[in-house]
Amino acid sequence: MESKSLNFIEHIIEEDLAQGMPSEALRFRFPPEPNGYLHIGHVKAICLNFNLGLQYKAPVNLRFDDTNPAAEESKFVQAIQQDISWLGYEWDSVCYASDYFEQLYLWAEELIQNKLAYVDSQGSDAIADQKGTPTEPGRPSPFRDREVSENLSLFREMREGKHAEGTHVLRAKIDMASPNMLLRDPIMYRIMHTPHHRTGDAWCIYPMYDWTHGQSDFKEQISHSLCSLEFKPHRDLYDWFLDQLELNQKQRPKQREFARLNLAYTVTSKRKLKELIDNAVVNGWDDPRMPTIAGLRKRGYTPKALRNFVDAVGVAKRENLIDMALLEHAVREDLNFSAPRVNAVLNPVKLTIENYPENQSEILHGEINPEQPELGTREIPFSKHLYIEQEDFKEEANRKFFRLTLGKEVRLKNAYIIKGERVIKDDAGNITEIICSYDPESKSGSGTEASQRKVKGTLHWVSAPHALAADVHLYDRLYSDPTPDKHEDSHLSFINPNSHQLVQAWVEPSLSEITIGTQLQFQRLGYFVLDDNTGERLSFNKTVGLRDTWAKIQQD
Fold it and tell me: Is 270 among the residues known to form the active site?
């Protein structure tokens, strides 16, 4: 059996080890900002870093880059920890950029003293206007050459809260003509009179992400700082800061970039995800239509399926759009082996077997999971009155319709062969009841000669007197456009109006004692998860269908 080939990140690590880096120096990190819930794109970064930690027996830090108190909350910190644990990973240390605020401040003063940073007293519009363009150099700020003493005095007053928001910023003094616009005197600190979720009112200035990130990696002695491709231009800035601070006596983090995970029919911008919530398109961060880990969990996706999906996508250097079908395939592959089979009818019509005794019922047996025969069977009650799917019956049908019709036989799954005899309709002509007959010698698995009779159709069903009422939430893609991220200001215009439907269904009574989060296969319908069992009706969320039908729907 061939071993799996290394991805380019693993090749980089192997080369570093071959060139003398001690294996005990390896350390990785996953650095989310606690300003929202993690999403499917983060799953790739989580799996990459934590799997490298497992592969090389190296520690992995969970570091919260909490530099913007206006958007960050403790509830997001807790949700992120829950999501990573649910995916099956353990971190070595929980760290926060806010742990380094004092050291970052002292380093900033060091840059000021070395004439490598200055306080700019212009507004944000003026600073942006002076940045220039990719083809034109920027213009220096009129405050670029302030005296060191004045810069230090102003910076300390900013920390003490003596200046209003927007009056001053601290900027690095690099190169206003650099072709990398991030090096055109980037902002390092801004004034924010906003309490921080960890430090409270201790600070009136907060470091920018680009100033914080590289130094945080250095503080934690991260060996390989793995970022998505949009951070590649930032690498020069991180290195410049480290060079000026003369921190070469210790290991420098090596930043390398990989392609982020772009999933069709999905947005992963936290700003856009928040817009979905604020505009009541979805019901919160954990809505099952959201691409957040919490939403995927509520929809019934499994940690193993998400890890397998990320593994199948791989680690690449180029951006590409991943088909939603690949994710759904990974979910089906996992649930096919693990999910018990049960009967549920989502669009019911009553079926009465006229030659079955009125007050009789019996217990039949069905396999729990054909992939795990050792699990045995479950009990299924059978009676004269049943529910089947309306779609499984036609009063008149052609030869290609292999379900129930008048004068035609089909098998009820794990039960008997029945034949359609006649129908009962309401005043509007709608079928309200199907009358059938059954062959009492055709019980499935009975061992009699009749039980071996072959019929082409098999239907799922539930016994009407025994069935449990259930609400079933049917979910589909949230967007009708495969690339909603391309519509920067109008992604809300491409919401799929049929992304959520609620139907009232009937399920077999074996589900009366299952717990929230239990995943099931509703036979012939798809995979579902129990979302609530506290009311009068069970509540299920649809996870995924038995096969990919989206391409056919789009074609039709």
Answer: yes
